[in-house]
Each structure stands twice: as structure tokens, then as C-alpha cells.
Amino acid sequence: MFYHLLFPMSDEFTFLNVFQYITFRSAGSAITALIISFFIAPFLIKQLRKSQIVEQTNNRGPISHKSKDGTPTMGGIIIIISMTISTLLWSDLNNIFIWTLIFISLALALLGFIDDYLKIKKKNSQGLNSKFKFLGQLLVGVLTILILINFSDHEYLDKLYFPFFKNLIVDLGMFFIPFVLFVIIGASNAVNLTDGLDGLATVPVMLVALSFTLICYLVGNAIFSDYLYIQFIPGVGEISVFCGSIVGSCLGFLWYNAPPAKIFMGDTGSLSLGGSLAAVAVIAKHEIVLAIIGGLFVLETVSVIIQVISFKLTGKRVFMMAPIHHHFEKKGWPESTIVIRFWIIAIIFCL
Questions:
Q1: Using an 8 Å Cβ cutoff, are 76 and 272 in contact?
Q2: 169 has which bridge partners?
Q3: Alpha-carbon distance 159 to 171, whole Å?
Q4: Is 130 exposed, middle or buried (0-12, 13-18, 19+ CB in 10 A)?
Q5: Over the stretch 108-145, which tens digit does the pLDDT of each residue have?
Q6: Residue 212 to residues 98, 234, 263, 335: CA-CA distances in angstroms?
Q7: Which of 205, 214, 242 is nearest to 84 (CA)?
Q8: What is the pLDDT of residues 263-279, one digit of tens each?
Q9: pLDDT number for residue 60
């Protein structure tokens, strides 16, 4: 909105030229999202507690989690509101990629909200039936693909680019549809699995978004992409503004989500953030890089897969509890130690 309102006035007021720069608007988006999240979080926490929208472990997970009962959940609402408003304020609204990302973030947030609501209503940890949740993610993924196919001039959409190799490109053809669905649904669930301790998922999401802020800027810049031997895709640079809003909103949310958390993200936030980052990677053609940068989310997901397969085949568990962060809890590690060490692992993957 600022771009459309203020940049046209730059002929008269030259200082408004800054609104043409993606770097300036990405920083502005992050700061705005941070301020909005700080502003709305205290009110929302109070209202959620008043409405009894609170965590109910029901003896699920480590015994130490019992102390978390009564903590407000659905905190992803804070993130979604702040990042959406900030993106609309600072981005070029003629860019179809921005609207695609807003759609997927809001759609998956709605799915997560339904899941969180049912958990509260049923007073258990089941929430939305896993089949319906998967179908919901599948529908959102399909609609996202259709938007990109029909409304974007994206000749690179069905290509898979490999990092570290200048010319290793695979044409996926129609296989790109199930591939993109796998990336979106997989990332959405991976962040959801990681969101099990205070602040554990928030910082890695912020780090991945920060990394993609830079990546999208480079991919969308003809000079830098040519110099770095990465594919130049027109319009992708604008996604940096969206990524900046994720960084700012997560940073503001972390203030209240840091141990001991005053509010939990819930599926409202985790499903949306995971799917949004996946969509960013798909549009920027850095899907494999997402698996590297988001390596912590991959580890958490793989630990669950290993645990399930091992138990079904042998009747034995590899980990004391999955996802793997619960394994270390069972071993007696303090929660803050696990969270900070996992943050360090996330930083290493991003580097």
C-alpha cells in the first residue's frame, strides 16, 4: 500500500524514492510486524485466558508439561495478523506471488484454528481428524498450485534446481504437482511437530524466513543472480517483504513465547508458517535449500517416522519419545537447554 501511495509522489518529494527499494520495504515490513505483534499480544493473551482458550495436556507428553496447563494457545493469531497487515502495507500489491503467499498463510491458519478449537472444545489432544487435516492441507496446496499456474508468468515452476551445481536442472513435468504438494504439506507438518516446547519452533522459523529474505532478493535481482549462477525469476524479489514480515512477527511473538511461555503458537501458527515457507521456496525454486536451511524441522520429522516404523516392525522404540525434543526431555535435559541447543542447530543449518 505504501509503495502504491508514496512512491508515485517521489517526483515531488525525492526522499520517497526509498519506497522503490525492496531492501527498505523488507526492513519496514519486519519492523511494522514487530510493532503490531507487541501491540496486540497482551490484549489477545488476556482474551484467550478469559475465554479459556488454554493448553490442556491431559497427561500427554512428559510429566513436566503438566505445569503448562492453563497457558493460552492459538497464539499463531498474533503472527498471522501482524504479518498479513505488514505485508499488505509494504509490498507491491500487483505482485501475484504476494497474494499467493497471503492466501496459503491465511488458509492454513484457518485449518490450524479449526484444529485448535476442536482440541479446546473436546478437551483432548486429538482436535481435527488427521484425515480431514491432511485433506485440508491437500486442498490448500492444490489451490496454491492452480493460482501459480494460471495467474503467474512462471516458466520455471516445473523445474527443480540443485544447489552447488550451476547447470543441474531437472524438468519435473507434471510430476511437479505431487512434488510441490509434498513440500507444502511436509513443511507444514514439520513445523507443527517441532512446536512442542516454549520458543522451539519460533526461532527456527524466524531464521529460515530471514535466510529466504536474502535468497528471494538475490533470485529476483538480475545482476546478483547472474553473478551467483542462480536462476533469475522476475518478481520473486518482492517476496522478501513477505519474509521480512514473518521475521518481525515471530520476533514479537517470541517475547511472549520464550520460556516460560505466556502463550503457545498452536496449529494456527505452525501449520501456516510451515506451509508459507514451503510456498516461498517453491516460488523461488529453492525447495532443496529449504530442506537444508530447515534441517531442524527435517530432523524432528524423521525422528517421528523412525519411531513409527520401528515400533510397527519390531515393537520397539528407537527414542524414549518422539519427536526427538521429547526424547531429550525424558533423558532429563532441562527444557531451556533443549530449546537453546536446538536453536544453535538451526543456526548451523542456516549458515
A1: yes
A2: 161
A3: 5
A4: exposed
A5: 999 999 999 998 887 766 778 889 999 999 999 999 99
A6: 14, 16, 27, 28
A7: 242
A8: 999 999 999 999 999 99
A9: 57
